[in-house]
Protein: DUF4974 domain-containing protein
Organism: Sphingobacterium olei
Amino acid sequence: MINTKYENVEDFLIDNTFQQYCSGENKQCVQYWNNYLLNHPEQKETIIQAKRLFHILVGNKKPLDAQVSKLKTDLETSSSSSVKFRLSTWIKTVAALIVLAGGIYWLIQQRQPGSLATSHSAITYTTANGEKKVLELADGSKIILNAGSHLSLEEGFNTNERHIHLTGEAFFDVSEDKNKPFFVHTQDFDIRVLGTSFNVKAYPEESTSETLLIEGLIEMHSKRGSENSMIIKPNQKVILYKTLAVSDNKEPTQKIKKSPLKEIAIQEIASEDGQTLSADVAWKENRLEIVDEDFASLKTVLERWYDVEIELNGQQLRDFRFTATFNKEDIKQVLDALKKVQPFNYKIYGKKITIYE
């Protein structure tokens, strides 16, 4: 389900951009959340509570200094017995706040797995498997971030240019601004755009990377092989076929070498009544479209969609192909439906699934 709402105080507190807004350390975050507050006045009270709790938990310096100053005054004016009592009480209070602050910091870190830490990023968004996010940027652009993805805005975004780095999949609806070109950077290619709607899919572990243009015009530069450049028109999809990545076993920790580009293909995608009919963008409507997909590829899709781990036991299973559409079905319902197309068995152990012949 697409995570479009912040429903309670905790939802705000675990958002790293909201934390930077509360601390005031990032101007873009402050601008974003001020705009968010204007657009969502019904959440004003919840945001105020979350901001107040943030300062309490991480340590609001001014109130703490005031407490220290007050304690010093109390020590100078109170009797020794009273001082001992107040000192003990104050120490216990501070200790409790420190423990609580540590707890909320640990919770925030645990709830934000795999944050993309790069020197160029000012704001980072991450989605876990089984999660999607809808983002509204300061320039008015809207992005839907698919499961298992990372997206970061470069520092200075929307000042002169707009640069975004993506690992995974996202749908972009970019606000037009000819004076501030919009760039999307992935491991395999760069995209330059002035104002348009398009989908980018660039998961490093997959054998292809893709871009589908819905409307507008984009210029695409591949980063592999001959570094081709091409202009993409509406209802065209560019597919970059990669060779398999190679593990470097000479290092103490294995590294995945950047795989060279094998081939680039451009497909014309059918449309009807101005609406693009493509499985590539069905995910943003929370619809799982499977089109003539083999089980080995489908395994990765289902793992990311339902946040599960799937093991295929049997070589014949990998050759099975499926075409189907799912909306609100859970993983068990999906597997039961696929079983009617091709014969296989499965067992579910929590989030781990074994599929066998």
Notes: The helical segments are 9-13, 16-23, 27-39, 44-58, 61-77, 80-111, 295-306, 331-339. The chain has eight helices and 23 strands. The CA atoms of residues 16 and 129 lie 18 Å apart.
